[in-house]
Design brief:
heterodimer, A: alpha/beta, Rossmann fold, globular, B: ABC transporter involved in vitamin B12 uptake, BtuC, 15 helices, binds adenosine-5'-triphosphate, binds magnesium ion
């Protein structure tokens, strides 16, 4: 009975996932769940296994044990590109963009799974493909570029842009996938205060206006505590706490995990 | 105002030929291409036809190598598959040329699909070797499947006809070639600005990132192989109908290398570039031919030394050219265009 209820409550669910590299246990039986429409943060010290967890969710890594459910469906055996088609979009800790393309082309690529025209319609262009491209371009201009405030750089080649803007472009590309759930791996790393605030605002906007569920890995505790509905803490591949930001902030175990040094931990957790 | 690239209107922005200026020159160029056969001699028309076949094959190879990033050393073999398919269908099964032409493309595309299968597992040099193997396997088949291909003697192919009108001169064939070139270039140009073409480039640039945005690598690599071989097949079928014979000697490994050179000299990942590359690689040897012939004549030089020298000149030209402009002719063209786009404010 309880099991059934949980399945309903979670849009994305991770059940007892194990992953190891050689002798190193990167994930050691992690179970957690993300509810539809919430902002769910994953925090933890360096090397805790946060990125590995996202990699398991979109199938870069294959967990040795455990299941991953998305909208009631087991996705732990699907191919990477199938996961994208289900509506799981992702950004990376070290930006995975197409460096030699323009910003606009990168964003357009995000629409791959939603556009229909194949080799024949595309080659003929006029008619189906053209209408589709135009409608999509309009969507990009009016919804995405506008939202993320990147009008000025849409024709720039990505690798010429500063890191902070590249992160924004990667977010734009993920949005072009019209995701149901968005996995963000440290979207504000390497940004100054102003850029970080912008990014936090974008995430909130996307969550509220588009109704997209957000899974966020972030080291900036200010951002995490501000915008998250719930927080999950990983340490050495294990979940050590989960709950509302204010509960996490005062959790003994979490404070200990954070470097062991209490002063520093308090300041980093903002407690 | 022709000053830089400031377009608010993105509908306009999506067009290939973005201004009246460009459209005007394009119209003029097309008009020239249509008048050309009436003023040129048969030799010039022969070369033009050969350029046309090269353009079609090179644009096809560029889709695979330049856009999708899969190097192929077997492109000539696919042209051969197309050439033989057309020849066999026309002579044995009484197909009209017009039906045999698309069939040649389709059969070559199927061959390309099969050869493309290893591309999921192997990359770079290893794929190179796999396509090289394909080249030699097909050459072997052309020579030894005597009952179909007539071995080294080859097959005589009748010229295409429209009703009772035979396309049996360079001039008449020229219009068919021109039409096919326009189709081939237009299709490729459109393909690369829509979904499938973008997926190709994504696979070339970063296949990991391509996968996370939902691109099925296997499917698009195979699609690219198929389309590229289709182009080769059509080029091959046109070529054998033009010279009216097909033998294994027409599709050697050497030709595969030449196609690759066209794509590289023209500019990887630029449709227009492969047009330039094909023209360059076909025209320059012909010009050198004429030049060296004339020089030998007028200066009474030893032709034994001088004629082979043109190969050296041609090779050096390519090398020098690639050193100074590794991005190919397409890049030079882009710069020329940029110059005129900003003119007279360009400095
Ligand atoms: N491909 C891999 N091969 C070997 N070990 C790996 C691999 N990927 C991750 N690891 C190891 O797994 C552990 C967890 O890594 P992960 O990247 O998930 O950490 P993280 O929590 O994202 O840390 P950070 O905050 O530094 O990004 C680390 O010890 C890391 O060295
Ligand atoms: Mg990480």
């Amino acid at each position: 009975m309880k099991d059934h209820k949980e399945q309903e409550a979670y849009q994305l669910e991770v059940r007892d996932v194990h992953l190891s590299f050689g002798g190193l246990k990167a994930l050691n039986g992690v179970s957690t769940g993300v509810k539809r429409g919430e902002i769910f943060s994953i925090i933890g010290p360096n090397g805790a296994g946060k990125t590995c967890l996202l990699n398991c969710i979109n199938r870069f890594y294959r967990p040795e044990k455990g299941r991953i459910m998305f909208e009631g469906r087991d996705i732990s055996r699907l191919k990477v590109h199938k996961i994208a088609a289900l509506g799981v979009a992702r950004t990376f800790q070290n930006v995975e963009l197409f460096g030699h393309m323009t910003v606009l082309d990168n964003i357009r690529l995000g629409g791959h799974v939603h556009l229909k025209s194949g080799s024949i319609a595309g080659g003929i262009y006029f008619g189906k493909a053209r209408n589709e491209e135009m409608a999509f371009r309009r969507h990009i201009e009016e919804r995405i570029i506008d939202l993320l405030e990147i009008e000025q750089i849409r024709k720039k080649t990505v690798h010429t842009l500063p890191y902070g803007l590249q992160k924004r472009v990667e977010l734009a590309r993920a949005l072009a996938m019209k995701p149901k759930i968005l996995l963000l791996d440290e979207p504000a790393t390497g940004m100054n205060l102003e850029e970080t605030e912008d990014m936090a605002r974008f995430i909130l906007d996307i969550n509220e206006e588009w109704g997209v569920t957000i899974v966020l890995i972030e080291h900036d505790m200010g951002v995490v505590m501000d915008i998250s509905d719930r927080v999950c803490v990983l340490d050495f591949g294990q979940k050590i706490a989960e709950g509302k930001p204010r509960e996490i902030r005062h959790n003994e175990q979490v404070i200990k995990a954070y470097l062991g040094e209490e002063d520093l931990a308090y300041s980093r957790l903002g407690a | 105002m022709r000053c830089g690239d400031f377009k608010e209107n993105y509908i306009k922005d999506e067009e290939i030929f973005q201004s009246l200026f460009v459209k005007f020159w394009l119209g003029l160029f097309l008009a020239f291409l249509l008048i050309f056969p009436f003023i040129a001699n048969p030799y010039a028309l022969y070369v033009s036809n050969m350029i046309g076949f090269a353009v079609i094959a090179a644009v096809g190879l560029n889709l695979l190598t330049g856009f999708t990033g899969q190097i192929s050393l077997g492109h000539a073999a696919f042209a051969g598959v197309g050439g033989y398919t057309a020849a066999v269908l026309i002579t044995r099964f009484d197909f009209s040329f017009w039906l045999a032409l698309p069939c040649a493309g389709v059969v070559a595309a199927l061959a390309g699909l099969v050869i493309g299968i290893p591309s999921l597992r192997v990359k770079g040099l290893y794929l190179c070797i796999a396509t090289l193997a394909a080249q030699f396997i097909f050459e072997f088949i052309f020579i030894h499947w005597e009952s179909i291909t007539h071995g080294v003697r080859g097959i005589n192919v009748p010229p295409p006809r429209i009703g009772s009108f035979l396309l049996n001169t360079e001039k008449r064939f020229y219009f068919l070639t021109l039409f096919m070139v326009i189709l081939a270039v237009g299709y490729a140009r459109n393909l690369v600005r829509t979904r499938v073409g973008r997926a190709f480039v994504a696979i070339r640039d970063r296949d990991l990132a391509a996968e996370i945005i939902g691109i099925n690598l296997f499917r698009y690599k195979l699609t690219s192989f198929a389309i590229s071989s289709f182009y080769a097949g059509v080029a091959g079928a046109l070529w054998v109908s033009f010279i009216r014979i097909v033998t294994p000697e027409h599709f050697p490994f050497h030709l595969s290398i030449q196609y690759l050179a066209m794509v590289i000299v023209g500019g990887l990942g630029s449709v227009l570039g492969s047009v330039f590359g094909a023209i360059f690689m076909t025209l320059v040897p012909e010009i050198l031919n004429v030049l060296s012939g004339a020089l030998v004549e007028s200066f009474k030089l030893s032709s034994q030394v001088f004629i082979p020298l043109k190969e050296v000149v041609f090779g050096s030209l390519i090398v020098v050219f690639l050193i100074f402009e590794p991005l190919g002719l397409a890049e030079i063209w882009r710069r020329v265009k940029a110059f005129f786009l900003l003119w007279p404010f360009s400095y």
